[in-house]
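Risk register update: the risk of archive-format incompatibility is retired. Evidence:
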Amino acid sequence: MVSVLLIDDDTELSKLLEEYLQSEQFELHAAHDGPSGLDKALTNHYSAVVLDVMLPGMSGLDVLKQLRQKSSVPVLMLTARGSELDRILGLELGADDYLPKPFNPRELVARLRAILRRASGSGASVSSQPVHLAGVELYPESRSVTCNGKPVNLTGAEFDLLYTFLRNPGKIISREDLTQAALGRPMSPMDRSIDVHVSNLRRKLGPYDGEQERVKAIRGSGYVYLLPGEQQ
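Archived output:
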């Protein structure tokens, strides 16, 4: 069974999810405050962490910030419905995806499975052949990336996003297609997740010499991965 850590102070929700997830072949462990959740996440091996934003003792965003300093475990944030700021901050801090509360347990399972597919390398990375392009080297089997010879630490979503870009240099890719490729789900109305992941990827790779950005937004169309000196 797949081991998942839920960090949420709602004990009733934890009990309900434990029963439901067990039927879906997930083993759920729970923590009900920020400090104990962070300690469990750092001292045990979990396939994924489901992390609520609102927690006693330490906010979920602070837990995520400290967790990302030491661990790349996939994280699904639970946010209040309509709280776009929390979603954006969570993604900027390294969450793989988010799910607004209240949610259907089936949707939680679908999001977890999409995250785990990416983490296991069975998402967008369908080929085992490394990709080399303009100083960036991507290795699907190890899910590792270097840029100008230096390792780049990417989340699962960022890795699949970069893989999609590197396979389609110079081609405009819609936000809908990027969301499906990087997050394994359709893009929801008013969903800015992919924009935050693109922004994180840009920051981690840095620009080309001469300050040209690698990824350019095309208004009303999507994004394009440019080669050095290329204009769009």
